[in-house]
Amino acid sequence: MKDFRELETEIKKASDKFTDIESINEFRIKFLGKKGIISLEMKELASLSGDERKQNAEKLNKIKDSVLEIIASKTEELNSEELEKKLNSETLDITLSTSKSYGTIHPISQVIEEVITIFGDLDFFVAEGPEVETDYNNFTALNTSEHHPARQMHDTFYVETETDGMPNVLRTHTSPVQIRSMLKQKPPIRLIAPGKTFRCDNDQTHSPMFHQVEGLVIDQESNMSHLKGCLEIFLKTFFETDKLNMRFRPSHFPFTEPSAEVDIGYTKKGNQLIIGEGEDWLEILGCGMVHPNVLENVNINSNEYQGYAFGMGIERLAMLKYGISDLRTFFDSDLRWNKHYGFSPLNIPSIIGDLS
Amino acid sequence: MKFSYSWLTEHLKTNAHFEEIEKKLTSIGLEVEDIQDTGKAYKDFIVGQVLEEKKHPNADKLKLCKVDIGKEKVDVVCGAPNVEKGMKVVYAPVGSTIPVNQMKIKAAKIRGVESYGMMCSEYELGISNEHDGIIRLEEKETIGRPFSEIYGLNDIVIEIGITPNRQDCLGVKGIARDLASAGMGELLERKISKEKGSFKSPIKIEIQDNKICSAFAGRYFKNVKNTESPEWLKNKLKSIGLRPISALVDITNFVMYDENRPLHVYDADKINGKIIVRAANDGESFQALDEKDYHLKNGMCVIADEKKVLGLGGIMGGESTGCSTETKNVLLESALFDEINTAKTGRNLSILSDARYRFERGIDPNSTLKGIDLATQLILEICGGECSEVELAGNIKENKNEVSTSSSYISRRLGFEVSDKELISILSSLGIKTSQTGDVIKCSIPSWRQDIHGEADISEEVIRIKGYENIPTSNIRLKTKINKNILNYAQKKLMKARHFIASIEYDELVTFSFTDSKNCEVFGDINKLKIVNPISEELDILRPNLLPNLLQAIKKNKNRNFDSFSIFEIGSQYRSTSPEDQLNVACGIKSGIKTEKSWKNMQTEFDIYDVKQDLTSLIDYLMPGNKKISVSNDCPSWYHPGRSGSIKINNSVIAGYFGELHPRVANQFKIKNKTNIFELYLDELPNTEKKTTNKPVLNLSDFQIVTRDFAFVIDKKVKSEEVVTSAFKVDKELIRNVEIFDLFEDDSLGKDKKSIAIKVTLQSNEKTLAENDISEISSKIIESVEKSTSGTVRS
Q1: For B402-470, CATH number?
Q2: Where in chain A does DSSP place strands (E)?
Q3: Cβ separation A126–B486 shorter than 8 A
């Protein structure tokens, strides 16, 4: 039986001298290479016999295992040292940066989408009509005859084309969409119609182009109390408040009877407008029960069907909700304004997520 | 409509507090717009008398006055030219606030001399525009008396908004009547003596056209004195912002504001023969009381005599028969003019007058003679003289409006139960007489309410008097949906486009639908887009394209120091001013700096490939799935002809354009930077609405992917896309992708040549491709590309 103590000592001595991967490799070749010390000893085993071979083989295998282990652990050790060194040299100045920017959605579009989302949840579909309208759809069908004083309050823009002998107009409100929709569809009807409207008026608080959203519900039972319920849900959801002081006041629109204007309560805290609470009133929209004459004008039997309509200014909603103080800035295309008041394109208004 | 609280209480006996009345007015539809407690505003001003007046030592135009204000005598420096010794004035003491400018009076040195308080003009007190001198009060005024008492300003003035239907509330009496109906007190009837008249009117009246004027009552007064009105009348008119003129005119104004009955007085001595009410003829003209000449048109209602036009019926009287202090004999008119004719004439001649305002909204026919009676009483009282009998031409038609309704109809409309009893009681409080047969309640509408025609109107009256706050709130959520879709395909497309474009760095703008025709000839037929009454010359047509306003926005922001623009708008542009001749377009502009020069990047500028990428990825987003997109050079004239392309989808419709703005157009808008534009005609995109929610079947190959690069030298004129498509078509199964990875132009390649390098990706669904498979397909690719581009492969 051979004593391998000498071999073990030699291995230990050699293994203390590792400096890099190369020296580990040399170590491996020295002991485990084809002509390595351990390999040669292994070959010699064949010449031994019986127990001695068995015992020597056992010992040699143990030594071989220990060499492999040394190689593995030393390699790992050296690799980590190497990596550590590399990492220490690889630093970047994280205070430097580049930026990625998104564009913005205009507040008008944002508010229209919010309004659609709220009313969509209440089963109102979105109806549309053209921005150039016939005099009939814009006025006459809406129970506003040619010389009705209400017409003069509208400051209408006229164009050179005509329909049935009357000059066409830029629609002064979104209400003609009621007429177009009722001619197309029989009750029950629930719709909203957001869009551009035009009046020949231009000062601090008037813009020749602005936006409105119209609402119309026609069925067999919808009445003033439903109108109140409808507007209450809408205004609470839109202004994202549980508290809402709301006041209905009599008013007059030729196409609704009874007609009402709706005020909401507000208070001012510093520069902030708090909507919903408070004893001061802000006018927010006009509404009423659809006038029977309007229903008859679109061939809907006014004895069988009734319903309500409402209309409100998109800019006004936007100004109150988002604290925008000047109407005219909406169309001024000042990019500083757009970037400040605009919305992220990824914020699509949602009933389950965020409205705004 | 303005009125004072004291005037209101002449018609309304009430115990209610003013605040209650204020609230009630708004709640019955007479919205309170403004309240001025003039008593408060004028409480500090008192009567003073100038005791001494001498020149200021340091200023030519200023005077030093000693003013007696009762409890003391004060020094006041005054600049008014009309100040003189002995004059009674309105004195504003130190601490008071001047109404017109809210200036607080302080004791101050004026050019070195102490001054305590101020003497006021009507302008400074906010009473009129008179600011040439300070107010000269009557000699008899007591020193120290509150000024507000003299001018009748110790009152509350209320301004309410009257909706066009409530013509009955254009007089104080009507307002009182409505308040009484709503439980705010009792309506008082004014005692009016009914003079019979002692002689027949020498001026006869003839109505030639009873459609434009159904009745005309006239009364002749002789030997009147058209003096200044008494204090009470002047103050009443002043309190609501009217300027007293002379007793006769003031009386008619008073009756108009009190009873909502417009009247007119003519100087009878200036009338030639009889009064003729007739339609005007083209070419006639007359000078109205506003001293302007009006040219009349056929059909306008005129009051004429046998020689000329005296006035426009229901709108404005004429200068020639106006009353002056010399007037001795007058004719008083109270007539019923047609609403529509009055409205048309007024609009046509652009005359706004209180009479027109009332006649076009409808006048209570029963006020015709009542107005004459009230005015007669006042004229005789103030101006003296004698009156004739009333001369009436035409017929005063009794308005006999009748409406049938039922409590069930009213309840159904309002959303809560209204009993027969409650309904009848509300109606009777409004002066509506009712009679009931079974469920049907028949209502006789009083003559002053011209706005009640049907059951719906009755429902409004009920809720108005009961109070809108009593409407309950009902749930509107439905058990079953009635609309399949909230947004249709086209609407969803617009919304998606908006969010997509904003997500690739564009800021959304909303610009006017109008624009300036001067910049638009290139974009469309501006003659078809004209607005008849534009708000300004620069906004005289509907926009034929979204670009003009966006280009202007760029120009504006350039002046605000922006040097990088990514802006877009989605909206309609117009082909003509016919309804529905509008189309939905998304238009984006990228211009200027794309990446700023930084520690990491070189500065780069936007080019047409940026907008092309944006446009094609937008189309991809809006129309997912297979489609063929091809580009060609046929762009509209606002694009740079060599640097623009049109995008065709599936070889059928042109859906949009991209490219550089034509230098000539850029120049017109004074834009110097290259402006890269895309336009997408959203209505033109083929409908690719999903028919199934399933995605197409996915076939994945596990065999090896191989890529091969090729480079070809081709003519510069040949589109590089040709290289890609001719390579692709060699084997649609094996060739998975073809991409251009290099473009190289150099004279060494030959004149007008370029080199295009492509990378072809190959993969089979059945096997790993062997070298000979690959070289076989490679030579086919070379052959195909060389053939279709007339180029040669570079080796």
Answers
A1: 3.30.56.10
A2: 125-126, 132-133, 158-163, 166-170, 189-198, 209-219, 246-253, 256-269, 272-275, 280-290, 306-313
A3: yes
